[in-house]
Structures are given as C-alpha cells and as structure tokens.
Design a protein that fits this description.
Layout lengths: L4 H6 L24 H6 L2 H15 L3 E5 L7 H14 L3 E5 L2 H10 L4 E5 L5 H7 L3 E4 L3 H4 L7 H14 L4 E5 L6 H13 L4 E3 L12 H20 L6 E4 L7 H7 L3 E4 L1 H4 L4 H14 L7 H6 L4
Parallel strand pairs: 1-2, 1-8, 2-3, 3-4, 4-5, 5-6, 6-7, 7-8
Helix pairs in contact: 4-5, 4-13, 5-6, 9-10
Amino acid sequence: MAAPGSLRLLQAPSFAAAKCQPVAGRASARRAPRPLFAVRASAADAANRDAVLKAFRENRALKIISGLQNFDRSSVASVVTAADKGGATHVDIACDKDLVKLAMDLTNLPICVSSVDPSAFHSAVQAGAKMVEIGNYDSFYEMGIEFSSEQILKLTRETRKMLPDITLSVTVPHTLSLPDQMRLAELLEEEGADIIQTEGGKCSSPTKPGVLGLIEKATPTLAAAYSISRAVSIPVMCSSGLSSVTAPMAVTAGAAGVGVGSAINKLNDVVAMIAEVRSIAQAMELAPRIVSENLRTISY
C-alpha cells in the first residue's frame, strides 16, 4: 500500500507553502495551440478525451469527490459506488494507482485523480485514470497551507509536460482575490488546462439556516464560476460547498458542471450517499438510471 497521502504530498519536491500572491503581468499575446500534443495523441487518447469532456461540453458534468487525502479504501469505495449508482458523470479520488484499480472495479465512469504532486499522476494514469486534477486544496487550508498563483502555474506546466494528452483540470485557489482568480484562470488556459475548477465553500460561514444557509455557503464558488466562465473559453467546474439547492445555480452562473465532496462524504451510509448524489443529479436535470436498479446490488 502506498505511503499515507499527507506524508507523500508534503514531501513532494514541487510543493512549498506560501501565501497567495497576485499573478505577474500576463503575456502580451496568447500562446499558440499545442501542436506537439495533438501530434503525439493517438486515436485512443483522442477518444478518451472526448469521452471525459463530453458532459462538460453539454453543461451537465457532475463530479463526486472522495478527497485528495482520503486513502481509506472503504470510504473511497462508498463514494465511487454512490457516484456510479446516483447518476454522476465523473468520480474524483486521491492519486493512488491501487485506488484507481479499486474504482475501476466499481464503475465505468471516467476516473479523475487529484494531487499537488505532478510526479504522482503517471502511475495513476497508467492504472486507468482518465483525468487529473491539480486541486481540492481544502485539506491543506486546514493545516494553514495556501498556494500562490506562481505555484499553481508551475504545477500545471510540470503536469502538462509529463502528460501532454491527459485531460487536465486545475483548481483556482479561493484565497486569491476574484480578479486574480480570473487572471490565473486565463494563464492556466494558455498553459494547456482543459478545465478550471472553482472553490470557496470552506471559507464561507452561513448565518442563516435551511435554504438561505445553503445559498450563503455556495456564494464564493458561485461568484468565481460566474466570473471565470466569462474570462476563459474552456469549461469551468463549480465546486466546494454545493448542494442540490445550489448545483443548478452553478450551471446558470456559467459552469459546465459541478463538483461535490463533503455533502456526500459526511454521510456514513452508502444508500444515503446514493440518494444524495441522485438528488443533486435530478436537480441538474441529468438523466439518471432507475433507482431500484441502482440500489439492487451494492457491494465492493
């Protein structure tokens, strides 16, 4: 079994704690498209990318996130099962080849792996991951660690250099000001990111109960999705602090899809997890499978 996720991530050579800083002035012109990547891509690579990005292009992507530092096989299995049977389009797990193999035994959904260590992605992709995510930083914020724009750009360049054909999603830290989030998103698009993910739920402190509280909690990531989706031409995934109430709002704001983690992970029962995923999928007007079929067999 791989070393504990937190130890591996904190020892990554490309990782360093730093306060977020504004992005330096952007290049005067956008970089040319990545012709070498297109040349290298095989027919299978192109087909994989099309399959992964299809839901985003249709503005109906629903990614269920188990957690960047969640290496517990039972927990990950429950989240993957809930995503599969609840009507999600993607599942996002910690970057570990054994977890990828576990997930592949439970679902045919495209599997995304998250990390802040680009060198960890290769083995997970070889194991079957179809998408990689630089992001899901919430566990680091809890340790007082933040990421600067320069760090995110550096991680993106390293990842794209090692994996030129993989679908790449990058989270823009909510610790940046909104104008700097937009600027970073533009630069990430130039560096070859395929998807921009927003966040902000962890920094929100709702003051109202019920529906009003759910909307308050989602406000930072909704604002980022609205602004960033108008600054870039690639899909934006709104994530962090979302629920069945606010997921449709994210799409209306301009997001091509939503990412949901804690709303599912906080539940201890896999049937309850499936029900929550289904509630979000139905709110987004996705076309879920029949409930009785999904709940008939739950094993891993």
